[in-house]
Amino acid sequence: MSETDTPPDIPPSLKEAQNARGRLAFAQQELRLISTLVLLLGIGLFLALPFVLSIGSVVFLPLTTALILSILLAPLADRLSSWGVPNVLASLLSLLVFFAIVLLAFAVILQPAIALFDDLPRLADQVADRFTELRDQFAWLAAANERFAEAVGYTGANEVVLAGPSVFEQVAVGAPTVVLEVLLTFLMAFFMVEARVRLRRNLMFGRTSFGTSVKAARVLREVQDRVANYILTVAWINLGVGVVVGTGAWLLGVDAPLMWGGLATLLNFIPYIGPLVMTVVLTLFGVGTSETVLLGLIPAAAYLALHTIEANVVTPSILGARFTMNPVMILIAFSYFSWIWGVFGALLSVPILLMLTALFDHTGRPNLVGFVFGEPLFGNQLMVLGEDGSAENSVDPPPAA
Questions:
Q1: Which of 250, 232, 253, 230 lies closest to 242, judged by CA?
Q2: I need a labelling partner for 312 at 20 to 30 A (CA). Which of 41, 56, 102, 273 fits?
Q3: 171-200: average pLDDT
């Protein structure tokens, strides 16, 4: 073909295929840009949210607690309503049942603890004696440490310790805030439980399309079932742990077995940190009330063995795969909400994580790792062209987090 010859015409079908591929590439770039902006906004929200929630904890902590309480108590209120109890009375009774359980739990723990409080000086002296014996046994290690410090020329510096407010002063200052938050929590929980019927009706009939109504109802039901079933199941497991601990304390002759059983039940709601605190407390108490250190470690060792069996055998077999969560995500949620709200945030971390997991199961989980390597952040909804130039709809399932 000479230079003056014109190139052959491109078939229209091939032109359309090339144009479609060009539009697809542009749409993919645009989708990735939007996904990057969404990801950056999510990271910014994740970093800024703790400061907002911490500053406004008087509002946000009761609101979050009330939301979880309403999810937990809604099945009980529904059961009472099915028996002919009016909705307002059923909501109030469900809240009173929860309040009575909490008061009973604190009475079981606090009453023996107050009686044991008078014996604290003797226990402290006993623990100090045990640690003195251990220090005498390892005196050679302390001497070696001192000689090493002299060899490297280290001299201990004087430390200035500023006196802070006492425990009673902190309690006196924080008590009004705690009382206000508790009142707000129960009031909001009552109104949320009482409004559950209207909320379901609005979700079902207040949408513009039937598909959206069904999806909203499914999300609400999934969040409620998952959180309520998880909390109730874990509560029964923790109650069993408390019964075993209380029985073991009674058999070993430990004072106030009901207190130790109740304390084990409550601390077992806090993942990882709660059992660790219980082990440390049992160790100190055992060492302070036993004649030797070895005998004092028996209660803590028995509890540690019980917790190992419960955490690795009993709980996974009862909860199953539906409630299985990544331990890394649990620790992240625990540290995140503990940083924001302290002990209350630690208690609420797992229910909040369950709620977010249920929502992501319906809306799609972001593929954070794959997005770094060029994959879409969520399921790909673009049209993909086949080898013959025909358009094929490709919908990838939402990737796991």
A1: 250
A2: 102
A3: 77
